Amino acid sequence: MQEEKSRIRVVIADDNRDFCIMLQDYLNGHPRMEVVGVCHNGLEILNTLPALGADVLILDLIMPYLDGIGVLEKLNEMSLTKRPHIIILTAFAQESVTQHAVELGAEYLLLKPLNLQILSDRILHIVEGGDREAAKSSRNTTVVPILPSVSVEKDIEVEVTRIIHEVGIPAHVKGYQYLREAIMLVADDMNYLGAVTKELY
């Protein structure tokens, strides 16, 4: 009789609480996974992660107090008994930020909105089928896989327009073009998020 594999321990770090609940319900319904922790800001992750024994950390890039890049930097300074595999989530995939996340140890970067089946497949791959040493050596020459596999620069404008329409903002309303342009600017350079009133407006 084949020994049953232990469940993959997952920690979710995202400041969107509704998204966390949805993701937690989905992963806990998977026969091979269990969510052992949910955090809503970067400092909370650093304080709770060492005690959780996580196999995988699902980490949003944009969070209060300390963003995803800051969390990765701090994790690299910590002497963790067990460092989890890290999957980055983001609504905006700027190439320089993506490359920096890879250099800091992220193994996948997934674009929101997520296909949850793809996410669970990636978790299984990095825990059961991935070779961490091979992944480390490949980081010097390749960018972490970005899903869905589209040309981000080419398709981000279409995606932004689609999302704006989905939330119910029609193209004819006053300010639509300003909003769309602001989102595009942030997608190209996330530093605008730190200077919304001074530069983005």
What is the 3D shape?
globular
Spell the H/E element sequence. Answer: EHEHEHEHEHHEHHH
Rg, nearest Å: 18 Å
Task: For the record, give the distance between the C-alpha atoms at the N and C termini, rounded to a whole number.
Answer: 64 Å
Low-confidence region ranges: 131-154
Number of helices: 9
Main-sheet strand order equals 2-1-3-4-5-6
Question: What's the gist of this structure?
Answer:
With 201 residues, this protein is α/β, with parallel strands linked by helices. The protein has helices at 17-28, 42-52, 68-77, 95-103, 116-129, 132-138, 152-166, 176-188, 196-200; strands at 8-13, 33-39, 56-60, 85-90, 108-111, 146-147.
Quick tags:
201 residues; alpha/beta; six-stranded parallel beta sheet; 9 helices
What does this structure look like?
Helix 7 (152-166) runs antiparallel to helix 8. This protein has helices at residues 17-28, 42-52, 68-77, 95-103, 116-129, 132-138, 152-166, 176-188, 196-200, and strands at 8-13, 33-39, 56-60, 85-90, 108-111, 146-147. It has a 6-stranded parallel sheet, sandwiched between helices. It contains 9 helices and 6 strands; from the N terminus they run βαβαβαβαβααβααα. The protein has 201 residues and is α/β, with parallel strands linked by helices. The relative contact order is 0.11.
